[in-house]
Each structure stands twice: as structure tokens, then as C-alpha cells.
Amino acid sequence: MEGRGRRRRFPSPTIFWPIILAWMRMPTRQNSQQPTMPKRRREGKTGLRRWRHIAAIGAAAFVWGLGLARFIAEAAFCAPLYSAVAPVVGLAALCSLLLIEGGACSRFLPVLSTSTATFASFWIPLLFPTPYVMGLFSQVFPMAGGVLLAGGLALTTLTALDAGRRRHHHQTPRPPQPSQNERRLAGISWAPMACLILTTLALYLSTLLPSLGTLDTFEFQVVVPRLGVAHPTGYPLYVLLGKLFTFLPVGDVAWRVNFSSAVFATGAAVILYLILRRLTTSWAGIDGLRWLPALAAALALACSFTFWSQAIVAEVYALHNLLVALILWLLLALPQDLGPFALTPARRWQATFFLLGLSLTNHLTTALLVPAAALALLWDRPRLRVVDWAKALGLGILGFSLYLFVWLRWPAVNQGAWMTPSAFLTYITGGQFHGALRFDGWRDPTRWEIVARLLRQPFGWAGLALAALGLLGLALRRRRALALTGVTFLAFGLYGLLYYVPDISVFLLPAHLILALWIGVGIALAAEFLSRRHGMGAAVVLAALLPLRLIWTNYAALDQSREQGRIAWGRYVLDLPLAPGSTILADIDKFAPLYYLQQIEGLRPDLDLLLFHQESSYHAALAERLAGGQTVYLARYLPNLGGLPMRSMGPLVEVGAAGVGQAGEPMARFGGRIALLGVNLTADPFGRRMHHLTLRWLAEEPVADDLLVRVRLLDAGGVARWASDGVRPVGGLYPSNAWPASNAADGGQAGETYPIDDYHAVEPPLWLPTGTYRVEVGLFPRFDDVGLGVDGGDEVWFSIGSVTVTQPEETPALAHWRRCAFSADDAASGWLTGYDLASETSAGVPYTVDLAWRRRTATENLQIVWVNERANERGMVSRSARFSLESDVVRSRHTITAPQTSGNYALYVEVAGELVRSRWLARPEALCPLASVQVLPARRGLANFANLILLLDAEIELPTAQLGAVLPVSLQWQALRAIDADYTVFVHLVGPDGRLWGQEDVWPVQGSYPTGQWRGTEKIHDPHRVFIEPTAPPGAYQVHVGWYLLETMQRLPVLDQDGSAVGDTFVIGAFQVIE
Predict the structure, then answer these.
(1) Which residues have a Cβ under 8 Å from the Cβ of 39 and sit 6 or more positions away?
(2) Tens digit of each residue's pLDDT (9 = 90 or more) over 955-1012
(3) Does the domain made of 816-936 have the CATH classification 2.60.40.2550?
(4) How far is CA 379 from CA 353, 376, 479, 492, 567, in A?
(5) Which architecture characterizes domain 668-807 according to CATH?
(6) Which helix (H) or strand (E) holds 623?
(7) Taking CA atoms, which of 138, 610, 804, 926 is between 20 and 30 Å from 785?
């Protein structure tokens, strides 16, 4: 079925390959020893060569035009260019004519034509979109097409500009002895550098976080504008430079600080480009394109995953890599270098010492460059005067003295208290992090796996192969550069092995920079070989492929341009009637917007906002504030509150305040014991796609059950379209079995009640269609679908009002892209733009398919079709029930049943009365192919978490453990579908008394591999080391594992064979604790 859509009705671009190959096989130069050719014959040969070049340009431009037509069709949903051949061919022909007749060709062709190899570099890039045109990607991916189109056109333009520069150079009379400045500037091609700057800035600005971030990013967005002191080591250089960006007249303060990282990252890429120009210009062997390896490697670094991620948020690592690149640029310089900005040995070493000292005030890992600097000194043995060495040492101390900023600014941000010298030294050396540095880490095989993965991640195996080739090139021609870069790479790699922190990837960024440098040298060496034996075209393709692939691979994954942080949440909270002078105890996720709005925008300065690292600190602060009569709100999950009364104040939880008053007539009673006294349901005042719901409960009798509050939405036909998973009341902190019953509390008086305000954020999923929905609530026991009856009846849901749901203007793309154009009676009826589903499932169980739509104009019925792919049973079809597909829908979710027979199946979509073109220029068909799904006879693994993550295997490595010891636990996971959030895995040790006596809550693989980065069905080995508390009782212990989302504290449910939730933790085994 799927194959029929691949037939196209237009001539394939491959018809141009015979012309191109014939052109490439013709002689490229005349032998100088042959007799001189008659003038008329030479003119004929020249004319023939000119027409051959024009034909090659025209053919390549035609292919480029085909790519442009497909890109417009799929990115802009242009039906004529998607389904009709004539407009496609017309646009491609127009592109061909414009390039031939537009003037650029006629201007630069004389220079380009002097060398067939150089001329190939002009038109070969226009063929970059060929894989996109021919549909060679595994899925429809307009981003890849756009990148190939832009990259090809940019390289062609750069080649033309370079040809024009060389033409002017050859035609302009030169003085017999060029000046020193001219010699310095001779090796620079400014157009490629400008292209690098514009490209990186455009990519960073289009993906830049526009608002408040989290963790360190949020801290810098607050500290930098106030010239405060950041967490140890203080980072004074970043704070002072970032302050300059806060004066920009665009964006808010948070955006400006984020933008500083984009500028610093761009600068690091430019310095790498200059280093590679100096290393490879004299031996690249690429006629006229000596800038190409440097441009490709610098752009590859700029577009690598971790480097890019740090260029779009307020963080110190972009500036750190800029300084590392500058220091390497100085260390790698030779006395005989006449490149731009060349320095004398004395000035070079003075600048090096100054930058080393200055860079230490931004990040202490600059110290890892000291071995390279020492090696350069031993290698060069510069003969400098004592005064020159004194100046160098003084400049280094001067740069390092910027740390005095921390000491001088400390009183201004700490109520006038000065730092003691010991505290200052501990602060600027990061004393609190020293425990994470384990000098035996190199013995840990997991650390080797982590570092190896993080070094392979930015450039892939192809990049590592080019880096190995670059090492060979440096060993043959630049041994000093090999030694200095090698020492630097080993230093940062070893640091990655020894430093146990979750975000170790950012500490390896200088090693990524060294890899990019080696890649640039490798590209130059490979290009030299290829250009001599296979023409310039192969070298151009090799150089361009790596950075272009990184752009389309990482762009969508790193794009934060739509993230608004939690600013709206913070504004909503600070608009609530919070008690004056009250305290909010928050986690880092919720502390960030509150503190930013208070410190930067001046909202609610009377509130005391507190953030701690330990639960014990929160408990101590809570007890102290309550004892002092202060109102305390929680903006975080805090267990073991000892039965303190609580109530919701919006999304906050007020602790220690029990409402007492007279109760009116209840709206409803659940289970005859719990009364619903009132409801407040309002739309979000900041335009978010959500509603705020506050329920007022009253326990008329003691409640023994631990109940969950569930909310659901019903359409006009009374059909339940969405239901929440259910949460404990009052933000999960006040379970129903802890509620005081009316008139039952100590000292309670007759007629007194103890109502409980319970807040819920009602956030309908994106796949819920536009419309008005009735809102109902219910109380349910955990992991049970049978709720408490309402008013003594069998109905378990109670209607509390209605809400209007609208579709957002833009929605994030689903994991898999598609472009399927549906039509009815030859009129367009909408596009299927993406899907998300699990790649495998068990026979006969519920199976969820998410679909993304665009421009739906009609309401029709939709079916999901399973087609068996086994050869002897191909064509066996099972169809799902019919689903209504509304007009203007942007997302739809369909829960179907997997086939009862195991095997490999192809999944299709069918819309009643409509045909579909499932590929560009494909013939219309009835079925739209989605993906292949493997149906297994029985579920694999030990536990299924929400059909997202499968626990494949688990091992408790010690049968017995002593009090205060560490228990090694090994887990193996597998993603069942794309995961768009970073979940936290927990390993809990539950003792014989049912209490928790040890836990580790962290992202997988020691925090280094968050679930949002998992690829496909990759198996993840995840080791844990859980500390057993010394005060734990001896006896039999169980090990519980599970997942939760830190932002909401919601756990992923464990599903049984039928897809029903049976719990939120899984017991992997038991062990004994002995004294």
C-alpha cells in the first residue's frame, strides 16, 4: 500500500547526472608541454567549456529549485506545489534561469572557469537538496530540506564572492613589496567569517530562551542586573560583562542576559575559525577555498548539542569557552606567524597570563589549561627579559584580582556583613563542591561510559573519525599543536571522569572545542586528498555535511523560543491575597519566578522567599516561622508535616491555618461523609490555556480512605473527553484521611466546621478540541476507578460548572513529522503533520496514537488501520472504532486496541470520504501510512511506567548491607516512545517498619542522561548507590523504584497487562540490613 505513493509523475532530477558526469570526465587542464593551440581553436575550446559550465550550473540550480518547491510545499502547506507537477517544474526552471541569467554567473564565471576543481565548488553545493528531493530521509523533515537549501546557496555565494575577490586581486596592480598589514590580512577571507557570525547569531536568536530560566540561569538573570554575588565561585567576570547587556534597549532583563551567552558563544566559534585558518591555510591544498575547513568546524562546534544549549540561556559556559579559545589561540601561535593580530613573544605571553588569571574569575576549570601553557613554555623556551616576565605575572594577578568584586559586593547583598578571609577563600574556590571531586573516579566504569557518550554526542561517529584524521594531520605537520591540544583534551576529559555532578556535560565543552579543532584539521587533510583525486565537489560535500546535519538535528530539540518559564505562574501567585509579611518556602522551580518578580520588578517586597537544599532545613524554617506567628505558604512538596492543618491559597499551600466557621448547605456529599461546600472556577487572567479551580471540602465524619480528586470534561453530548489522573487534595500534601472531622477536633465547639480549600489547575491537553465543556469532579480511592457515590446514589461525578477550551495558535511538533494532504472531491480538507506512538506494544492491550493536524476544514470520521506486514499474511487488516475528527483540530488522541496476533504491523490512518497524498507528488490513496509497530505476544520487562518507560531488568547487588553502608542497585530502562520531559527516577529503601530509610532521586545515569534526550528504543544502563541511614532498624528491606516529574511531583503509574494503573512504584527485590 505504502509503495504506491512513491511514484512521481515528473522527470527525476537524476536525468541531469549524465550531463554532470560527462562534464566532470572531460579534461580539466591542458598539458603545458603540448604545442600551442591556434587562436581560433582556443576560442572554440573556451566557448565549449563556458557552455559546459553553464549547463552544469543550470542543472544544479534546477535540482535546487526542486528542493525549494518541496520545502515550500511541506513547510508552508502549499497544496499546488505538493500535488501538481507543473508548478514544481516551473519553479525549478525559474531558479535555473535566475542563476544563469541573474548576473552572478556572468561576473564570476571567468575566474571560476580557470579551474574545473574551483568551478565544481560553485555548483556542487546547489545539489545538496538532492537527498531531500528524492525522499531519502527516514521521515518527512522540512527542517532538513531548508538547511540543505540554505547551506547550498550560502556555499555557492561564498565561492562566488571569493572568486570575485581573487579576480580583483589578480587585476589590480600590486606594489612589489606589500606592507606588513597587507601580509597579515592576505590570509583572511572576511565573507566566510561574516557568514559564520550571521549564521550562528541567527540560530541562537531564533532559539533563545525569551524569558526566565531555571536553576543557575534564573540566578544569573537576577544577580547580573543587580551586580550581586552568584553562588560559589561568584563568577565576577560573567556578572560584570553580563551587566553591560542589561543596558540594551530591547527585550526584558532576562532576555538581555540570555543574549549575552549567544554573543559569547558566537565569539568562541569565531576564534576557533581563526585558529584553524592559521593551522591549515599553508597546507590545506584547496585551491581558493582554504577557509572551508575552518568554517565547517567552527559551525559544527556552534551547532553541537551541548554548546548550543549553553548559548541560548544565561550561563557562564559560553564565556568560558570563548576565553579558552582565546588562550588556545595565543598558545598555538608561532613567532613566524604573520596572520592577523599577530603578537611579539613578550606581548603574547603577557596576554596569555592575563587571560588565564581573568578566565579563572569566570570558571575555575581554566586551571586545566595550565599544563598546556607550561608545555608551550617548555617547547618554545622564549627568551624574554625579566621585566617581561614580571609584567606577565603582574597581569595574571591583575586578571585574577577581579575576585575582589565578590568580597566588595558581599555586604551590599548580605545586610552589611563582611566576609572573613577564610570564608572568602572557601567561596571563590568552590569549597562546597570539593566533595564531588573523587580522585578514584577513573576506576568507575560508569564514568568512562558517561564521558565516552558525552564526547561522542556532539559530532557523532563521523565527527570522531574526522577528529582522528585531524590528529594524524597534526602529528605529520603540526606536532606542537598536537601536543598542546592533546594535553588540554586529556585534562578536561580526566576532570569529567573525576567530577561527580549531574551536569558534567557542560564541563566537557572545552574538550568539545578541541574535538572541533581536530575535525577542522581532519577536513582540511581529507579535502586535500579528495580534491587531488576526486575533484573539489567531494571535498565540499565532506566539509558541509557535518555542520548542516547538526543544525537540522539539534534545532527542534533545543528551541526554547516559545518557553515563557513560570513568569505567568509567578504573577498569578503574587496577585493572590497573601498575608502581608508572610513567608513562602519554595523549591527551585517555583522560587525562580517569585524571586525574579520581587527583585527585578519589585512585586510584593514584603514577602520572605526562602530556598533550601535539605528537607530538614525547610522543616526547621517552617517550625520557626509558625512559632513566631508568621503566615507560611509552601510552594513545594514537603512530607512529614505532623498533622498540621493546611489549605490551598491558589497553587500555594498555607500551613497551620485551619478554617473555622459555620457551614452552609453543601452542594453535594460524597460517600455520605465528605461535603462539597463551594466551588470557584475561573479562567486564567494571563491568557494561558487553563482554568483555576478551588474546591471547599468538609469532612463531616472521619475519613479512613486516602482519596484522590479527579476532574473531567464532558462535551455537549455528555461524552467524557478528558479526565485528570487524580491527585491528593491541597497539592498532594493533605490526604483525606488526615482531615479533621467537623466538630471532632480538639476543643471543637458545637456547630464549628473545618473546611479545606483545595486548589487544582485544570489544563486540558492540546488534543482536546475547541468547545464548551461541562466540568465534573469526583473522589476516588487510589488506583481504583470506582469513586464515592454522590448524594447517596450510584453516580460518582458531580457537575460544578463549564469551561470554554480554545486551540492555541502554535503547538509544539510531535516526535515524528509527516506531511499528508487530505482532500475530498478534489478540494483540500487538511494536513496530517505529525504523529507520536510507541514502537512496540503487547497483543490485545490499549494503544494510544497522537496525531497533529493543520487546516482541517471538515468534520469526518477517522479510523486507525492495522496491516500485518508478514509476507504470508500481508494484507490482513484490523480496523479501530471510528473517531470523530473535528474541523480546526490541531491535535487528536486515539486509544485503540492492539491486534490479538503478535507480529510486525504497519499502522495507517483513514478518513471517511477523503483521499490522501502521503508524499510529495504522490498519487492519491485511501490510506495514509504512519509507522511500523511490533506487537509482542506478552509484555517484556519487569514494569511498564505509563507506556513511556519500560523497566527491563533490575539487580540488587548485595544480599545484605550494614547500617550506614551504600547499597548498589543496577537498573536497565527502555523508552517506549519519545519522551518530551525530563523525569526523575527514584530508588527508595523501605524498612520493616514501612518507613523510608534511604533514597536516591536523580536523573538517569548519575544525572547525565535525562529522559528527554533518550533516542528511540535505546537500552539505558542506570546504576545507583543508595546510602542507608545509620539509624535505620535492622531487618528485611524492600527496594522500590519509580518515576516522577519534579515540576508537578506527579508519579508515573505502573500499568498492568490490560493497561490499568496498579501503583506508582515497583518493588524490584529485597535485602537484609544488619548492624
Answers:
(1) none
(2) 998 889 888 888 999 999 988 888 888 899 999 999 888 888 888 888 899 888 888 8
(3) yes
(4) 17, 5, 11, 21, 54
(5) Sandwich (2.60)
(6) helix 615-627
(7) 804
